[in-house]
């Protein structure tokens, strides 16, 4: 669980450099991950999609590209990040806390949250709120960081995460605050079976996990 005010302040300070920084630090692999999520959304041909914690809009924009006939709405509680999303072409944005979404029950056919659930104050409550705005049978897709299961790979990844990444991010953004936070948030965030249990406890079923690379990130999908 995270401090929402700290998270908001940290990301507001790097909003204008967030997209470039992420692509550099991931060597562009995060783009491929989002394309995979957007492909999963396209398969269900949704009329309306909600991208929660949309940030600068990468995920929502990718869904817009792959699903041109779908209404895509992006929400975030950080206005500077939403400003970036709008500038980049996200047509529908709503300033909102993921724990209290301003939508009616069952408004959306699919819902995505990419690298955002981990930053929320209450993961279980956030998942239940996401379930509330999804229609029965609606698709939930979560993309977030995880820790590799192999001991050697995990050790190398942790060194990069806690030592190399904050230095590189600081050079690009002028502030390493958000990226020092990133490493600590990944350490405590549930992954694998624990995350599947959390999702199912919020009222979802048919939960699937798909580790990416050696497990540095994972895609979870489930049905309302």
Labels describing this entry:
7-stranded mixed β-sheet, Rossmann fold, alpha/beta, 224 residues
Could you please describe the fold and organization of this structure?
By secondary structure, this protein is an alpha/beta fold. It has one domain (4-223): Vaccinia Virus protein VP39 (Rossmann fold), CATH 3.40.50. 47% of the residues lie in helices and 22% in strands. It has 9 helices and 7 strands. It has helices spanning 4-12, 18-25, 29-43, 58-66, 79-87, 123-133, 151-173, 177-188, 193-201, and strands at residues 48-52, 71-76, 92-95, 108-114, 134-145, 205-212, 217-223. Strands 3-2-1-4-5-7-6 form a 7-stranded mixed β-sheet, with helices on both faces. Strand 2 (71-76), helix 5 (79-87) and strand 3 (92-95) form a beta-alpha-beta unit. Helix 3 (29-43) packs across helix 4 and helix 7 runs antiparallel to helix 8 (177-188).
Describe what is shown at a glance.
This protein is of the alpha/beta class.
Could you estimate the helical fraction of the residues in percent?
A: 40-55%
Quaternary organisation: single chain
Please state the average pLDDT score.
91
Class from helix and strand fractions = alpha/beta
CATH superfamily: Vaccinia Virus protein VP39
- Level-2 CATH architecture: 3-Layer(aba) Sandwich
Largest sheet: 7 strands, mixed
Task: Spell out the helices and strands N to C.
Answer: HHHEHEHEEHEHHHEE
Q: In CATH, what is the class? A: Alpha Beta
User: Taking Cα atoms only, what radius of gyration do you get, to the nearest Å?
Assistant: 16 Å
Shape: globular
The N- to C-terminal Cα distance equals 23 Å
Uncertain residue ranges? none
Spatial sequence of strands, sheet with the most strands: 3-2-1-4-5-7-6
The CATH topology corresponds to: Rossmann fold
Q: How many domains would you count in the coordinates?
A: 1
SS strand fraction: 15-25%
Number of alpha- plus pi-helical segments: 9
Could you tell me the number of beta strands? 7
